[in-house]
Write a structure and sequence with these properties.
Elements lengths: L11 H5 L13 E9 L2 E8 L7 E6 L10 E6 L7 E4 L3 E10 L5 E9 L7 H4 L2 E2 L12 E6 L2 E6 L14 E10 L9 E10 L5 E13 L2 E10 L8 E10 L54 E3 L16 E7 L4 E8 L11 E11 L13 E3 L3 E3 L7 H10 L11 E7 L3 E8 L13 E6 L14 H10 L12 H6 L5
Antiparallel strand pairs: 1-2, 2-3, 3-4, 5-6, 6-7, 7-8, 9-10, 10-11, 11-12, 13-14, 14-15, 15-16, 17-18, 18-19, 19-20, 19-21, 22-23, 23-24
Amino acid sequence: MHSSSNGFDIDLYSIVNPIPESPSATQGEQKLSLLYYSNDIIAVHAERNGRPGSGRIFAISTQTVPPGGKRVLKEIVLSSSYRLFARHTGSYLYYGTLTGMGPRGHLEWEIKGVSLDFEIPIQANVYPLQLEGFLGTDIGSTIAFKIHDGYFYAVSNQEDFDVDAYELDWTSFYHCIRFPLNRATRETMEICPRVYRRQHNEGPIHDSWTELSLQVAERRLVIVESRREWQNGSSHALRTSYITKLWDPVEDNFTSSSANTSLTIGPTNAPLLDFDDVFSSLLDICNEPRYAPSQPRGASDYHSEYPSKHYTTRSFLLARSKFRCYDYSCSSFIDLVEDDQCCDDPSTGPCLRIRVSSRSIAPLDLSSQDKDTAYRYSAVKTWPPPASRCPCSKRLHEILNPPTAFRSALKRTITAVLDEGCLVYMVRQAKPYSSNDDRPPGTIVLINFNRGLISLNPTGNKLSDYKEQMVENCDPSHWQWTPGQDRICVYGGCC
């Protein structure tokens, strides 16, 4: 959708497995999974069915004419693929596995890197970098990795493996690490384990809803964490996205918002806990509490799903939220939900719909004494409308809910991804109990939010002519909103 060139097909099996490893091996025994895409390069993990845990990574050029005529830019043999992930640019590819051994016998992340476009040795390819003390195993929930502006970044919101009932903590921190792509060594690694996150007395967290990511807006790299919290003793769990600046090109200061502080027993230069706190008297030498003063949050540092604690909008259970994301660049919560109250038709099952909660910067009020940024919140909207509303809505429901897919929530799986302009998801039958049974192919649905990419009415014809054009060229698998769409629908010209 974002490429200026025409698309073409690539037979991955012929690329990653031109010669079977054994006479009995066939192409069907090869399992392929997409790891990452960037700079016209896809990173693919290939492993043999029946021999999981290792395999190879292929960096494959998707350009029509690959550089130097090489479709495969790099092939990497893996000794382990446990919790494998990859991030890359056009020049470097870094991948990690949860295979390092920590001092207390727990597993830690090991990062390796290779060069893609020129032969410069990278020490991380021979001697992997182990992220010591970097806790968390779930990418997108407890940890996040990203390459930005020549550096590899890693962020975790975890501070300990076990919850100690006798441990006293007041403050939670992010653990942040970065190192340059062209010099990935322990000496060049920058570590800051004390980037302020939250105070524990703000309320408990519903961990199943937590989403952690690193996002870029105007070259600024920020930590975006969406949390569902019972704030200040409330009985209602509120979802809020918090934005923490990690790197700014103007300041050029990694972790400028960090607070490298902790509370210790005895003489210390760190900020002390307010002795009016009822728990401060319980500290002893067995405690290693973490504390930092509360940091003020401006309006731009957090975004609540519901403004001003208005909970009148219908919410969805976690099981019905098939995809959740907060996009920092457009200040929007974007969810893909199963709505069992949309269309009253038990035979079709719950409808897949897009749910959006957004805000925008409000006009400047010169009379206000408040210097903080003011925002204007939009109503929470769910789209498309019920299929019974109009022909357009019915057609949209047929596209968003593929008729070939199993409608029952227990019989289908949904995988989705979002970028700055498109939401793409795949609906397919759930994996059968027997591993020998093959699942039928899934259906991919693309929702493009940038209506400027395609024009169905470039000549500017009159509404009546355009109405006839839509009827004649009706494609049941495609729908596009155009200016004046509501009027067209009222006149019966939609299809």
